[in-house]
Amino acid sequence: MSKEDNQKVYFGDKKVEKLEKKEGVESIFSKVSDNYDLMNDLMSVGTHRIWKKHFVDTAGIQKDDTILDLAAGTGDIAKKLTKFVSNKTIHLCDQNKEMIDKAIERSLDEGFYNKCNFNVSSAENLPYEDNYFNHVFISFGFRNFSDKNQSLKEIQRVLKPGGKLHILEFSRTNGEMFTKIYDFFSFNIIPKIGDLVSNDADSYEYLVKSIRTHESQEQLCNMLDSNGFQNTKYTNLFKGIVAIHQGEK
Questions:
Q1: Which of 86, 111, 140, 247 gets the highest tally of CB atoms within 10 A of its CB?
Q2: CA angle at residue 83 from 85 to 67, to 5 degrees?
Q3: Could you tell me how far CA 223 lies from the centroid of its own chain?
Q4: What domains can be seen in the chain, in order of their start residue?
Q5: 27 Cβ contact list (under 8 Å, min separation 6)
Q6: Are 58 and 81 in contact (CB under 8 A)?
Q7: pTM of the full structure
């Protein structure tokens, strides 16, 4: 076993073995899957919809592109992606079966199933051929990967030469006063909302802590660089509450 395999990673605000994080994330998202979309609306006061629309609309998708929606959750990004492609070329992948089941149900209810393929798999061991995708999208899932560097290596493998990785993720806020207000809302209000809506304050406390221990904008750019991505860049949205990172193979 390599030194890298033995390295501990953040699960919330605690350092744990990578397998322990993988199992912990799996358990949390199984618990929150029924109320996940509602909680996203409440936690972000609906702004996550604006962020995700901008994320997809500015990606430069072509109608014949083959696209991976990684950590796909309940399929809201995939639904937006299907508007840009003409064939069954959207692949949704999530390590949590309950989330993929919700995505399948949603795609059937909302009329975009025929453009989608579904897989249950971790980001660290993707079930796709080399040089397969034009784009890989990750929306609010990257910070939950148990081995981020291995995930980036896998994404590099499955991207076509010239293909692009797009990551929408919570990041580091700008401005001392704004950061204090945001931290108060995150640590004091979000877990209470989780308790009221789903009787599960602990899972949402984890989600808040996972944001604080996730890499900064510059650190994530450096991680992309060190894993072979080219032309890496990021764009802050709403004072850095979230950022869009991009890199090319």
A1: 247
A2: 45
A3: 16
A4: 3-248 (3.40.50.150)
A5: none
A6: no
A7: 0.88
